[in-house]
Design goal:
The protein is an alpha+beta fold. The protein folds into 2 domains: about 10-75 and about 110-185 and about 300-390, FAD/NAD(P)-binding domain (3-Layer(bba) Sandwich), CATH 3.50.50; about 190-295, Alpha-Beta Plaits. Helices cover about 30% and strands about 25% of the residues. The chain has 10 helices and 21 strands. The chain has helices at about 15-30, 55-60, 65-70, 110-125, 170-175, 265-275, 330-350, 355-390, 395-405, 410-420; strands at about 10-15, 35, 50, 75, 80, 85-90, 105, 130, 135-140, 145-150, 155-165, 180, 195-205, 220, 225-230, 245-250, 285-295, 300, 305, 310-315, 320. α1 (about 15-30) runs parallel beside α4 (about 110-125), α2 (about 55-60) packs parallel to α7 and α7 (about 330-350) runs antiparallel to α8. The longest helix has about 35 residues, at about 355-390. Its cofactor is FAD. Keywords: FAD, Flavoprotein, Oxidoreductase. Pfam families: FAD_binding_3. It comes from Roridomyces roridus. This is FAD-binding domain-containing protein.
């Protein structure tokens, strides 16, 4: 499909989970004058996030995606983090039943999440225009309050609103002149062994035996490092004879820069060094996707801006915030950004040709709320990182002992689950 030649109301740049969620939310609100574009051909994405939290499941339910996702995902009721010897704390998501229809985390690879969302879009007649790479945003010389979105092909789309869902290296954000820095003093901290993470979708020579079957996702912070092993739904495995797992682990400092696409042998060497002995992990048999991730946090100075000339730019997902993947919050937060924006835009568009000050007030309120949510998630993930890299001192032993003691109580398990679920930040 080709780009529209006439001015439209909204262009969504980026068709990852946040961009698709924005499209579904706009359509659900009765807003049809928009297009969604992406620089990649269909199928050129990759598996990154592995869990959708309860608050995000609630949001996706409002735009009609849940039936598809529930059919393919595994429901995980418990999440625990252990150190070298035992579990430090846990979250029991089943305790959230009074607060949500989805008292669990839904485990499935991001590619499957995107596939379900793409199918839902097609059912509504929404098609992603590919491959169109946005390269610049400029005020229109012909129409006040309109932005010219120029693409690498030289084609231009005119729109009143541009939604940037184009990731951490967002062209939309950069063209709007919005800063993107580490919260606080702007300085990136030294994160030691978790400064980089390696990720892979793998099968093992035999099924791993986790220490407690109550926790189907294994997470540890042993050996001053982080390790996650999460099984994908059996039906989604590349090998019908093997369960496929997402593994994520910190790169030991002595390794230097990890390979961009780590080999099976390299991932195995990292697991050998960071897995606690209690796990007795089998050998990796096959790898289907691998990647390296540099751990950092950055939040856009604002998620709403007007270009000179009056066109509006709005940011969602990784274009607005990035942070450590510890805690599984990134994709979930981005989807909630986008769906909340779709819900906010009808009131904005109702005044679009009238009082611009009133419109800007509505968008500023939305952007401020999302900024606050992003800072809250950064705080959660920084706390998790701090636990991993804390030096092995007497105070660390005391702190971990306190965590083990408090973690026995149902109230604490509910509080941890409520925070991780996103319901506290919805």
């Amino acid at each position: 499909m080709s780009l529209p030649s006439n001015p439209i109301t909204i262009v969504i740049v980026g068709a990852g989970p946040a961009g698709m969620a924005a499209a579904l939310s706009l359509h659900h609100q009765g807003i049809k004058d928009f297009v969604i574009v992406d620089s990649l051909l269909a199928g050129q994405n990759s598996s990154r996030a592995v869990v959708i939290q309860a608050a995000t499941l609630e949001a996706l339910d409002t735009v009609g995606c849940m039936d598809k996702l529930l059919k393919i995902g595994d429901q995980n009721n418990h999440f625990g983090v252990r150190d070298e010897s035992s579990y430090l704390f846990s979250a029991d998501f089943s305790l959230l039943a009074p607060y949500t229809k989805f008292p669990f985390g839904l485990v499935l690879p991001q590619t499957s999440t995107e596939g379900a969302m793409l199918e839902a879009m097609k059912e509504r007649g929404i098609h992603v225009l590919r491959p169109y790479k946005a390269v610049s945003l400029k005020p229109s010389a012909e129409n006040e309050g309109v932005i010219d979105v120029e693409f690498e092909s030289g084609e231009v789309v005119q729109a009143k609103y541009v939604i940037g869902a184009d990731g951490a290296h967002s062209v939309v954000r950069n063209e709007a002149g919005i800063s993107f820095t580490e919260p606080g003093n702007g300085q990136e901290p030294d994160l030691g062994n978790v400064s980089q993470l390696i990720l892979g979708d793998v099968t093992f020579s035999s099924p791993p035996h986790f220490p407690d079957p109550k926790y189907p996702v294994f997470t540890s912070i042993a050996n001053n490092n982080f390790l996650l092993i999460a099984p994908f739904p059996a039906a989604l495995s590349h090998d019908p004879e093997r369960i496929e797992y997402r593994v994520a682990a910190g790169v030991p400092v002595e390794d230097g820069t990890a390979p961009h696409a780590p080999s099976k042998e390299y991932i195995q060497s990292v697991l050998d060094r960071c897995a606690p002995s209690v796990l007795n992990l089998p050998r990796i048999e096959n790898t289907y996707w691998t990647s390296r991730y540099r751990t950092r946090a950055a939040v856009a100075e604002r998620s709403f801006a007007r270009l000179a000339g009056g066109g509006a730019v709005l940011l969602v997902g990784d274009a607005a915030h990035i942070h450590s993947p510890l805690g599984g919050q990134g994709m979930s937060l981005g989807i909630r950004d986008a769906i909340s924006l779709g819900a906010a835009l009808p009131a904005v568009l109702a005044q679009d040709d009238g009082d611009r000050a009133a419109v800007d007030k509505l968008l500023t309120i939305w952007a401020g709320e999302r900024h606050k949510r992003a800072l809250g998630v950064v705080q959660i993930t920084k706390g998790a990182l701090g636990m991993v890299i804390a030096p092995r001192t007497f105070m660390r032993r005391i702190g971990f002992a306190l965590l083990r003691f408090l973690g026995r109580f149902t109230l604490v398990q509910r509080m941890v689950a409520y925070r991780l679920s996103g319901l506290a930040e919805i």
